[in-house]
Amino acid sequence: MERAASNLGTRHRLRLTMAIGALLTLLGAYVVSTIDRADAAPGINVIRVAEFPADCAFSHRLPDDPIIFPGLPGASHMHSFFGSRATNAHTTLPDLVNSATTCNPRVDVSSYWVPTLYRNNVPVEPEIVTFYYLGEGVRDDVVARTQPLPLGLRIVAGNARATGPADSIARWSCLHAGHVPPSKNFVNCPAGTMLESYLDFPQCWNGRDLDSPDHQSHLAYPVNQVCPASHPVPVPKLRQVLRYPVNGDPAQFRLASGPGYTMHGDFFNAWPAAEMARRVNDCIRPVIKCGHDGRPL
Amino acid sequence: MRVVVSVPTAVLAAALLLGGCAARGDTPSPAGTPTPATASGTGSAGPFSATDVAWLQLNVAMIERLLPVLDLVPDRSADPAWRGLAARVEEDHRSALARSRRLLSDAGASATNPHAGHDMPGMVTAEELAALRKSTGRSFHLLVARHLRAHLTQTVRVAAAAQQSGAHPVVTALAAAAVQEGIDVLAQLDQLDQLDRLDPDHPPGQRERVARAATRPTHHLVLPAPHRTHI
């Protein structure tokens, strides 16, 4: 059904072109028959995944949280910060915009932070830290009208106050050991593998607020693959993936916020608006997998 | 007839006037009623900042976590110095709790506490509370001292930051009072702790002197005059 509509749109557009259009029609027909939405594809070798990444190594640790405890250094449990090197309890958007970053790409001066992981009470930092911006979890037509994440957006995902797996969206698994079932609490990863944490941020914005009193309710998760009326603006889904150089008995591990199911992530968006908009336009809406530079892979 | 008309007019005018200044939270909402939660509410002495609201919420959560510890002292300690200190801290904390809640209400901030049920620095955990309930005598005193010290140290750290970074004068005054009270009680705790460690060889009368000091009223619970009526 979607393919048919897409095909029609392609033909309609091509009808407006001249001689070169005929060639493209042939090419287009081939592309349409093999992929979902050929009209947006600039080439046939793109990978049809709506995605652009930022890899942001560990920067620093502080018991600070400029979203939950602005202006109150020392008020929080210990956090591990990624991205902007400047973040502390007093950080505001201009501080981030002017800061150095650990991210690849360097244009991403956003700040990302999580509760510090401890192994036998010694802090451990993830060796591989990737923030994926994705167009998934909503219908294709919703992906196609994804809006950029607004500059200055602050959002907390996960539940630091979770009292058990039931009220948590944490996901722990093992890198290179897919046979270990994922869990909301720490898992026992085989020797030679890494403990990994996945966390998906909400992707439906209320279109108005950069923050909210509980630091969550200005965004929402989709319902039946659509953004709810209360949060009508689809934005890229931020997926935080952390790989820690530890494995073995989960009893050695704790987060600064408690058990594994208290995993949460904080995001303070400081992507330059034009860079974010370009990636949404070139990677998310047309469903193309992009590299760190925001260009198709 | 004229009187009948003028009375409702006066009432209406008064209501409009009141409405004008009460719209943003001069009228405290009943505790537990979720109000439109923003940090933009204005009390009678100016707007509340995000720092003000964050500190008040954390203060409420920290105090609520300490009260069950203090409640154990009268039942589990016969020591007048400890009982006196616990009573003093409890009185101060209950007063600060009521003020913090009222200010949050004035600020239009959520009555739902974002820190409830969450182990934060300085907070006694459920396991630690269970251990306290099983201990008595000197070991109980040492445990209470450890938890009270952790709580007060964190309270002083965060309240000092709120005093410096907060915006609303009543909030920063409350934070200043929390810093001073925390420092005073930590000093008394040091003395008591020392006695418990040296017990029973401390000089006669010393314990009683500490007990008297612990129950002495404190000057800094009185806040600056211009703001006193609002909290």
From TrEMBL, chain A:
Source domain of life: Bacteria
Pfam family, one: DUF1996
InterPro entries: DUF1996
Segments forming domain DUF1996: 65-271
Protein name (database record): DUF1996 domain-containing protein
From TrEMBL, chain B:
Compositionally biased residues, Basic and acidic residues: 198-211
Positions of the DUF305 domain: 71-182
Keywords: Signal
Pfam families tied to this protein: DUF305
Organism: Micromonospora sonchi
Region: Disordered, residue numbers: 198-231
Source lineage: Bacteria, Bacillati, Actinomycetota, Actinomycetes, Micromonosporales
Signal peptide: 1-23
Highest taxon of source: Bacteria
Keyword Lipid metabolism included in the entry's annotation: no
Name of the protein: DUF305 domain-containing protein
